């Protein structure tokens, strides 16, 4: 009886103790909740469809226009989803620099490029390499070859020689200006990368490169095509219905690999047989490894990829800029007349302009800046990948998100370029040094490249 009474009398005490503990836990939780920072939301963006996100809202071509439309609705930073992948779309130069330049340690990686990297075999070129040791190795090679003190001056005689050849071709066959532009750029890069001198308008390597680069350009932007979203499509059998895309991609791959191999193998074989006539980017790297006594398979792959980067990344884009210049001058004769008057006044009729004349040709320099802005050579920057969760302007940027710089959209930013659809070189005449509006801040991409 006493035991039962003791147990019965202790139960209220136990219940009270448990209640006090639970109350303390609840109070602690409330205090922590009140003092904790509010959970961050993702940047605003278009309404998503279950499972597919915003994938069905993107057109197959001219995606930069859709991105700009979203930017005008939701702001400079837009969040979208391609199936299960978060995508941060940047339509502002300042935001792009804040994320991919100032936070480059976290925003420098690359996604998997199933189309360009794997199907077309360009995975060893610098724009597509993930951030890591291989990337840093390439950067060191390029810095030594092009950014070291006084190096670029050494290429000026080559550029003057090829400029003369191009001008002669333009006088003889003016209607073939597109071919002359590509030959000019290809000849410069071929000699720098591989030591190959172009001596005729029918150079087989230039012809191969022109066909390969045109085929590659027709495949679409990096990271934006269906094969990138569904990498399994790279295994789609060529005998099945609907395989036309795969057959065309394989033909493009063959052209690109021939372009990357042709001159590189010439350099390797010439070095093995006694030395090269013209030193080049590829020959210098190969010779350094041969002198060290070894050239591993990885060394060989990396030197081939780095040399190919020079060629693949510059010939078509620079030719595009030159074609835009012709279009702008045809459409805007008053601009052409002003530039010609300045050139005649500063340079005169007896010689060609040179690098030393640049500071005395402010209007012509402004024309070239407007050419870059008015029709950017690459509308979308190569996508970056976020390494870990980040925060920008109180928005959460999730790890593994794609970050796409809409360069075309940035070129239409009315806060930097009033009346952006008009060709107005004058907008750059009064531009302060280091201005955010300078097209070089966007047309060459962002981050550690």
Automatic annotation (TrEMBL):
Iron keyword on record: yes
Membrane-spanning intervals of the chain: 12-33
InterPro entries: Cyt_P450, Cyt_P450_E_grp-I, Cyt_P450_sf, Cytochrome_P450_fung
Sorted UniProt keywords: Heme, Iron, Membrane, Metal-binding, Monooxygenase, Oxidoreductase, Transmembrane, Transmembrane helix
A GO term from the CC aspect: membrane
Major localization class: membrane
Source taxon at top rank: Eukaryota
Pathway: Secondary metabolite biosynthesis
Compartments where located: Membrane
Cofactor list: heme
GO molecular function (one): heme binding
CDD domains: CYP64-like
This protein's record includes keyword Heme: yes
Stated family: Belongs to the cytochrome P450 family.
Protein name: Cytochrome P450
């Amino acid at each position: 009886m006493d035991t039962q009474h003791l147990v019965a009398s202790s139960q209220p005490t136990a219940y009270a103790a448990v209640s006090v503990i639970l109350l303390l836990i609840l109070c602690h939780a409330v205090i922590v909740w009140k003092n904790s920072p509010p959970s961050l939301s993702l940047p605003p963006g278009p309404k998503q469809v279950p499972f597919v996100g915003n994938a069905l809202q993107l057109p197959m071509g001219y995606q930069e226009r859709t991105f700009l439309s979203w930017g005008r609705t939701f702001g400079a930073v837009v969040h979208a989803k391609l199936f299960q992948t978060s995508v941060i779309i940047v339509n502002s130069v300042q935001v792009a620099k804040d994320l991919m330049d100032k936070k480059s340690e976290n925003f420098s990686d690359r996604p998997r490029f199933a189309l360009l990297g794997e199907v077309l075999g360009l995975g060893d070129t610098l724009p597509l390499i993930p951030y890591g040791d291989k990337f840093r190795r390439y950067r060191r090679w390029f810095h030594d070859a092009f950014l070291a003190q006084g190096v670029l001056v050494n290429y000026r005689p080559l550029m003057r020689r090829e400029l003369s050849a191009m001008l002669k071709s333009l006088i003889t066959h003016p209607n073939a200006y597109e071919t002359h532009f590509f030959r000019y750029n290809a000849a410069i890069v071929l000699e720098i990368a591989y030591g190959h001198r172009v001596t005729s308008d029918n150079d087989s390597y230039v012809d191969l490169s022109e066909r390969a680069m045109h085929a590659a350009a027709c495949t679409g932007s990096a990271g934006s095509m269906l094969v990138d979203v569904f990498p399994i499509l790279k295994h789609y059998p060529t005998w099945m219905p609907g395989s036309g895309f795969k057959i065309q991609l394989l033909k493009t791959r063959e052209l690109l690999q021939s372009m990357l191999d042709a001159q590189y193998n010439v350099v390797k074989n010439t070095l093995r047989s006694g030395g090269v006539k013209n030193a080049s980017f590829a020959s210098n790297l190969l010779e350094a490894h041969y002198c060290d006594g070894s050239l591993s398979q990885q060394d060989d792959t990396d030197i081939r990829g780095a040399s190919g980067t020079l060629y693949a990344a510059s010939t078509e884009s620079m030719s595009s800029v030159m074609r835009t210049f012709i279009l702008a001058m045809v459409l805007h004769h008053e601009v052409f007349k002003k530039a010609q008057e300045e050139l005649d006044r500063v340079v005169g009729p007896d010689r060609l302009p040179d690098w030393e004349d640049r500071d005395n040709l402010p209007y012509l320099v402004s024309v070239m800046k407007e050419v870059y802005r008015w029709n950017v050579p690459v509308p979308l920057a190569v996508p970056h990948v976020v390494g870990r969760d980040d925060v920008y302007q109180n928005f959460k940027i999730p790890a593994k998100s794609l970050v796409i710089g809409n360069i075309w959209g940035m070129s239409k930013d009315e806060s930097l370029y009033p009346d952006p659809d008009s060709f107005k070189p004058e907008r750059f005449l009064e531009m302060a040094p280091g201005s955010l509006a300078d097209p070089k801040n966007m047309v060459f991409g962002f981050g550690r490249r």
